[in-house]
Specification:
five-stranded mixed sheet, alpha/beta, 7 helices
Length: about 200
């Protein structure tokens, strides 16, 4: 199939709807997941266990429509707390396919950091420089060479996850092995930058 995969959201989407759409767009860029997405037909509803958010995904005609709420007659599947779109155990084949689509491969940490910088550079409050140190590979990458750098250190998998918008918040990454060096003001900006990437806005 050629051309962009249709992934549409409602006019005033909730954060959950936005994040689901963002991750499905990532999956649409992976050939085998693209084929899976475009071949699905049916409806799946998801329910957060951390807050009151719900969303319904309608797969049809090679694409998907996503809106908040649970459609009548559809039983919502709980999302596993503090995971990135792991669904509670269910025998439903469509739900299993959706879980695969909601968990595409995480990019390499360097690629994720580059995309994160590109998406947020110049935003109000965002650091003028960023130094990312990968502890497992003993390598680093720096953005904004001439500016004082906000530093993010961590293992490769944790860096890749946080810079690609995985996890509920940037602060959650700090609890899972990422450390930072910089001001509280910049930490706040990094939290907002993470949400910008996570929600694809």
């Amino acid at each position: 199939m050629s051309g962009a995969v249709r992934i549409e959201v409602e006019a005033d989407p909730t954060p959950l709807v936005l994040s689901l759409a963002r991750v499905l767009r990532e999956s649409a860029a992976v050939p085998e997941l693209r084929d899976l997405l475009t071949g699905l037909t049916g409806t799946v509803a998801l329910r957060s266990q951390l807050d009151a958010q719900t969303a319904t995904l309608l797969f049809a005609e090679g694409g998907v429509d996503i809106h908040h709420g649970v459609d009548e007659g559809v039983e919502a599947i709980p999302l596993v707390p503090y995971s990135d779109y792991a669904l509670a155990a269910t025998p439903d084949e469509l739900a299993s396919a959706v879980q695969a689509l909601l968990n595409p491969p995480v990019p390499a940490w360097r690629d994720a950091a580059s995309s994160f910088w590109a998406a947020n550079q110049g935003s109000i409050g965002f650091p003028e420089g960023l130094r990312v140190v990968c502890q497992t590979e003993e390598e680093e990458i720096r953005f904004g060479e001439d500016a004082p750098a906000y530093e993010v250190h961590g293992p490769a998998d944790a860096l890749a996850a946080v810079f690609s918008g995985r996890g509920e918040t940037f602060l959650f990454a700090i609890a899972t092995g990422v450390t930072v060096v910089g001001s509280v003001a910049h930490l706040s900006a990094m939290c907002g930058a993470h949400w910008k990437v996570r929600f694809g806005v």
